[in-house]
Amino acid sequence: MTPFPISEQSPVEHSGGLSLSADVVIIGGGVIGIMTAWFAARKGLRAVVLEKGRVAGEQSSRNWGWIRQQGRDPAELPVMVEANQHWRDLDPQLQAEIGLRQTGTLYLAKDAAEMARFEAWLPHAHAHELDTVLLSSAQVAAKIPDAEHTWQGAMWTASDMRAEPWVAVPALARAAVRDGVQIVENCAARGLDISAGKVSGVVTERGTIACAKVVLAGGAWSSLFLRRHGISIPQLSVRATVAATDPLAQVYGGGAVDHRFAFRRREDGGYSLAPEGFHEMFIGPDAFRAVRRFLPQIWADPLGTSYRPIAPKGYPDAWGTARRWADTDVTPFEKMRVLNPAPHAGKVNELARLFAQTFPDAGDVVIKTAWAGMIDSLPDMVPVVDHAAAIPGLIIATGMCGHGFGIGPGFGRVLADMVAGDDLGHDMSRFRLSRFSDGTKLETGPNL
């Protein structure tokens, strides 16, 4: 199985020459960018993916590996239901074992108040005919019989799935290449080529690609890229830590989370662990500009985020990161090919302790490895998936808020239809860019 997560030390797999022209250029080789390109190619469009480092090198290989319908924002839910089916349809085409399993998602409640939050989400599940149900404390105990901890109850969606992201996204990329997509790793997009006020190409470190459509799916780097072209979005990035254990006895086969930590069974027999509700935000220029819009999130969970005054050198919102450059300059994207933050060591130790306390019969909890990822987040906890009115031809897909892996095939299909000018199939008004500037009161999605 591919080592996890993917990093700058991972071998370059897509190293061909750069096309002179394309119908659409996708900036960013994560799951959103790869799936957009694949669906675009299936529509007969010439699609090129530019990845400054490695396919899935950042958040797309660093996430929990959940393919989750449960707990989604109501506007995301129809796209996610579609994505769930895409995963099932695409898996046999990948010529690789990605660990796709229908194992369900389990949200464990510590008290009655949390059960009430889960119950409040059920009408959204019923509207889309999901199999989501509430479980009693006894039913939870039957589902996780070896747990020493007890819970008030749970919310359970049996049709949810899991996969190994560091295997799945590269496999999706290879399948896209077989269908005609060109992927170029180690090739940063430096900026847009704009003629008569609209997109005419993308300037890269290797030359310019002529195109009329560009999809920006740059994750934590999107805001920095957009600012160079006069578009400001209140996007921040937070560091999230994940740890992976050596193989253990199976205590539960899917993804589960309570108020302390999340855990997911992996194909290698170990568990991926993550602290629940804990993130770290590095304070930089973008953070200062956007903090007012994030106040509702901060007030709702004042202890959920830890603040760091200085980001490491080269991070998207570091104080020393360049905000302006010429097309001939070496850009911040080239100076940091893969954003590979260090995990929080204290949280890694705490995760091992919590898992051992909760499942004492699973075996000795040995942490095999740990990593972190920078999650691109927007104030209302839903992404921007929209045309940029200020620059015709540019489409923005960013701010997935840590939920992008599972929903990637759904948004990829939508974005390909945006490029082609076809019917999108879903109401996308919730994801419009203008919600940050048209006076609309932002409504924070469910933090479930």
Report on this structure:
The structure is a single chain. This protein has 448 residues and is an alpha/beta fold. It is 28% helix and 23% strand. The protein contains 11 helices and 22 strands. Strand 11 (198-204) and strand 12 form a beta hairpin.
Mean pLDDT: 94
Distance between the termini: 31 Å
* Domains (count): 1
> Which class in CATH terms?
Alpha Beta
CATH homologous superfamily (4th level) name: FAD/NAD(P)-binding domain
Rounded to an integer in angstroms, the radius of gyration calculated over CA atoms is 21 Å
Helix content: 25-40%
**Beta fraction of the residues?**
15-25%
Question: What keywords describe this structure?
Answer:
single chain; about 450 residues; alpha/beta; FAD/NAD(P)-binding domain; ten-stranded mixed β-sheet; 22 strands; about 30% helix; globular
What's this model, at a glance?
This protein has eleven helices and 22 strands. By secondary structure, the protein is of the alpha/beta class.
Secondary structure elements and their pairing?
Elements (H helix, E strand, L loop, with lengths): L23 E4 L3 H12 L4 E4 L8 H4 L3 E2 L9 H14 L10 E2 L2 E5 L2 H16 L4 E5 H7 L9 E5 L3 E2 L2 H14 L3 E3 L4 E7 L2 E7 L2 E4 L2 E4 L5 H7 L7 E10 L9 E3 L3 E5 L5 E5 L3 E4 L2 H16 L4 E4 L23 H4 L9 H14 L8 E11 L6 E4 L6 E5 L5 H17 L28
Parallel strand pairs: 1-2, 1-13, 2-9, 5-15, 13-22, 18-19
Antiparallel strand pairs: 3-8, 4-8, 5-7, 6-7, 10-11, 11-12, 14-17, 14-18, 14-20, 15-16, 16-17, 21-22
Helix pairs in contact: 1-6, 1-11, 3-11
